[in-house]
Write a structure and sequence with these properties.
Elements: H1 13-35, H2 42-46, H3 50-82, H4 86-101, H5 104-113, E1 120-123, E2 127-130, H6 131-134, H7 137-163, H8 166-174, H9 179-209, H10 221-232, H11 235-264, H12 276-285
Helix pairs in contact: 3-4, 3-7, 3-9, 3-10, 4-7, 5-7, 7-9, 8-9, 9-11, 10-11
């Protein structure tokens, strides 16, 4: 009988060389930061400072509210783009063209400076005031971020709606469902699998973009860090602290995005891959790592 073949795994020397190079570069980077003129003790000292936490809270608030405006208005604009009415389709296209084509930093300044055009805001008999008093830093930041985000969300939602097969809509209409009911019950739930992943990225991006509101004097995490850094002399240290808080917030949002994607992916896959928590439990219990249901 022939001798059994002994399989010898391929040796990947390039991987070991690359690993050594990466570890060496990382060690040099750590050494550079450790030997630099940075007061690392100031970071934990101010990490839970009241002003820092207030700035973080304002950052989260403006992020959530701006995304709400962006998502709601983005859905409306996406439906308008899909409309057979040339007027509504053109209006939506012009809106998206303008807000996607100009930097959000410029838009923030435009909202702040519209007092040159509109001296008063007059919504008789509800409200009347000077533009400078009406356009507070909070409102300026909210409109600047929210309306800009709506243009991007409109394209994301339009892509999601277009991803649903037209036969679904035709079948719903054949059953007597109205256009609005078809959108709510048939098209939108299926489109969410396409819409959710980029929307999660937009939320994370909005959290970071919110740092631009310092231009209109809105008190956020970056503003708080800069104020403390200027008063304490630890300017760079407070910027590192702000970056750490942004990383914490984006990490939490990334986890939420992961589970939200799993929720809307249930209909597209019979078995979803295990979550990190499920894999850890399976290893501890000695079970198999076959795909399971939603956690």
């Amino acid at each position: 009988m022939p001798e059994p073949i002994k399989a010898v795994p391929v040796r990947h020397y390039g991987r070991w060389i690359a690993a050594v190079v990466v570890i060496g570069l990382l060690a040099l980077l750590i050494r550079a930061f450790a030997s630099g003129d940075v007061n690392w003790g100031a970071i934990p000292q101010y990490f839970f400072n009241a002003d820092i936490l207030k700035g973080l809270r304002n950052t989260l608030i403006i992020t959530v509210l701006a995304m709400v405006i962006g998502i709601v208005l983005g859905v409306i604009l996406a439906v308008m783009r899909q409309s057979k009415n040339p007027v509504t389709a053109t209006v939506a296209w012009v809106y998206i063209w303008f807000f996607r084509g100009t930097p959000v930093y410029v838009q923030l300044f435009l909202w702040f400076s519209l007092g040159l055009v509109f001296q008063y805001i007059d919504i008789m008999p509800i409200y009347k005031d000077e533009w400078s008093d009406f356009m507070t830093p909070f409102l300026c930041a909210l409109l600047g971020l929210g309306l800009n985000e709506a243009a991007y969300m409109a394209e994301i939602c339009r892509a999601g709606l277009n991803a649903v097969d037209e036969g679904q809509t035709e079948a719903a209409h054949a059953l007597g469902m109205s256009q609005g009911k078809t959108l709510r019950r048939i098209v939108v739930p299926q489109a969410m699998r396409v819409i959710v992943p980029p929307t999660g990225n937009e939320v994370i991006n909005m959290l970071k973009t919110s740092s631009l509101v310092i231009a209109v004097q809105y008190y956020d995490l970056l503003q708080a860090a800069q104020n403390i850094g200027r008063d304490s002399g630890a300017v760079v240290e407070m910027l590192i602290l702000a970056a750490a808080w942004y990383l914490v917030a984006t990490s939490v949002l990334s986890v939420g995005q992961y589970y939200l994607e799993r929720y809307y992916a249930r209909g597209s896959s019979r078995q979803l891959p295990l979550t990190p928590l499920q894999r850890a439990k399976a290893k501890l219990s000695g079970g198999s790592n076959h795909p399971g249901g939603v956690a």
